[in-house]
Amino acid sequence: MKLRSLSTITLLLFSINISAAEVAGVKLDEAVSTSNGIKLTLNGAGIRSKLFMKIYVGALYLEKKSDNASEILNSNQANRVLMHFIYDGVSKKSIIDGWNSGFENNLDASTLTAMKPRIDNFNTLFTDTRAHDEIILDYVPGSGTRVVIKGRVAGVIEGKEFNRALLQIWLGKRPVTSSLKRTLLGKN
Asked: How far is CA 163 from the centre of its chain?
């Protein structure tokens, strides 16, 4: 009887560990759904650090898991980027500077110029963040990238091209950090 109880407890603990991931104390769901019900699976997650400070836990959710950045960038599948802030006090200006730097580092001049109105609109959506705040960036084909900040829908930026440009911040040739890119691709 005791052996059966121990086996049951061990099995229960094992199932808990595989049902959710944890990065830097932040629990991440293995699966989520977009606003229109598309099921996404956790592809990978990691920490965005800057100057030895942990800024946020980033997670990438996809309809179909992939460890190939080009494949993800060129697909038209729904996706989600979750940013769970662990650093207390990231200013709106710092967030916008980060977006702009990421776009500039990964887009050629003509694409950056074409995207500028959408990037400017995207930047107006953000506010200061504190520890435990979340930014969710959901791409739904045919709709656009839905931006949710601290649980509230801030807006939608239209177009697959914008989502591809946004994903390049983490998965492009010059990602925000190569270690975060690697973990988002599921390559620990």
From this structure: 12
